[in-house]
Specification:
Number of domains: 2
Distance between the termini: 61 Å
Order of helices and strands: HHHHHHHHHHHHH
Strand content: under 5%
Largest sheet: none
Helix content: over 70%
Number of helices: 13
Radius of gyration: 20 Å
Structural class: mainly alpha
Shape: globular
Amino acid sequence: MPDNTTWHPGDAGRESIERVERLVAGLGGELGFLAAGLLARHGYMIASDGGGPHRNVLGHPLFELPIWLDNATSDEGEVGREVLADICESSLCGYLAVRAEDDLFDGDWDDPTAALMLAGLFRTRHQALLGPLVPDPRFWGRFEDLWRGYGEAMLLERALHAPGMEYGRAEFDAVLLRSQPLEIPGDAVLSIKGRWDLTGPLADLVKHLTKATQLFDDFVDAPDDLEAGNLTWMVRRLGGLEGGLAVRRGMITWCDRVMAEAAGELDRALDIAAALRIVEMTAWVEARKQIMNGASDKLYEALFERLGGER
């Protein structure tokens, strides 16, 4: 086994955050101020507890995937810690570019231009870190396709929120392409290791992982989404076109079913992980199932009590 097994994803995350903080500290000017604000807003501050959304049990595997894939393809050697560190930092920068743009859509920026400039900065860093590591043109073709798909999915999501639009399961799956760039760090490892044949299963793995999280998040956020006018597929599915009371009733009715759907997506991801020999994912998936079940139980109780008080 490669010695990367002693370098845990949490360590990789911490080192990546330290690198990005040094990048931000060196920016100065308005971009430095805005970048520091983005890191603080999303919990990426080493000075506190070294946390960040990736440390949340429902967070995306920003750093886990490249390390797991390097371990899983150990027969082809290892890419080395320094290369993995660059890949993990690239993963975080790509994620921060998305966060800047997502915050723009959510109205969290006073100046929309600032969000665009900051997203461009982080995406450039994301790409620049990978450039010297991965010469394979197949990787860069996939890189371009994934980011183009992300852009189309983001625009589609905004259009689908309009009341008269058709927003069903097929549209929900199309919108999920916004999360597919999560596979890029893993694609980089597989390209370096000469295992491009595994990129198809990796893409499916990411699809199921992100679908599970999105189902859960959209379910929990349904009342807030309705209030903000974001008529997601989940809001419509729960009866949101009839108002907030219908959504809360729908959440009680649909809670078990939605949680089962999310768990099913995690199980599909686990099957693919087994085929890829990613042994570390079992505990990772089980932890997510537990937190989803615990959160859904608390949400169910709160909804039931609130509906009882409204009668």
